[in-house]
Amino acid sequence: MQLQIQQVVPIPLKPNLLNRQSDIWLKGITFLPGTRVKIKAASGTGKTTFIHFLYHLRNDYEGNIFWGDTDLQNFTPAQLAQHRQQKISIVFQDLRLFPNLTAWENIELKRVMQQPIYPVSTITEMAEQLGISKILHQRVGICSYGEQQRIAIIRALMQPFEWLLMDEPFSHLDQENTRKAAALITEECNKRNAGFILTDLDDDNYFTYHQNLVL
């Protein structure tokens, strides 16, 4: 499923964006299936806004976003729900975990929201890979933010997807834990022939990107 962005600009930020260079805002761009995209941007230039547009949490923009042949603004609620369950997964910048549930419960909820693609044992395997086995049965609210980021990454990988959206997913991880998380994400995207869009403040070499863009 390809993604097309056509002359998109956030309405609240439009006056500030008209006179600055951007590879995304007010441009026409197509991301082919399986493309791995890095979007670099300074704080306040719309990284989270852009990710929320793609996931349809916000629709206060001008222009068009097409997932496949369908304008995102024309999705019915049922189509959007299916799209989010089968085609697109996300790691939010603010994570959006349930603080009173354990790490395991947060991940398991995502695994069983549709026909599971992995057995429950995969949670344990991914947790070991990312070094959070010991906190799987802790309430998320008492986990560190770095632990929570790794929980959120595993949660996002539990569902089917053709595209993975990631909004500053490694901001509280050290280099070694970022390397491990990036390796797991790469492995899962390779299995599914999936693409991803990752936003961040700085350059990195944790992935081999097909496109490096500036917001």
**Contiguous uncertain segments of 5+ residues:** none
How many β-strand runs?
A: 9
Largest sheet: 5 strands, parallel
Spatial gap, N to C terminus? 22 Å
What structural category do the secondary elements indicate? Answer: alpha/beta
Based on CA inertia axes, which overall geometry fits? Answer: globular
Percentage of residues in strands: 15-25%
**What's the gyration radius in Å?**
17 Å
Read across the widest sheet, the strand sequence of neighbours is 6-7-8-3-9
Q: How many helices in DSSP terms?
A: 7
Descriptive report:
With 215 residues, the protein is of the alpha/beta class. Helix content is 34%, strand content 21%. The chain has seven helices and nine strands; from the N terminus they run βαββαββαβαααβαββ. It has helices at residues 14-17, 47-55, 77-86, 103-111, 121-130, 145-157, 175-192, and strands at residues 3-10, 28-31, 36-40, 61-67, 70-71, 88-91, 163-167, 195-200, 211-214. The strands form two sheets. It has a five-stranded parallel β-sheet, with helices on both faces. It has a four-stranded antiparallel β-sheet with strand order 2-1-4-5, with helices on one face. Helix 7 (175-192) links the parallel strand 7 (163-167) and strand 8. The two termini are 22 Å apart.
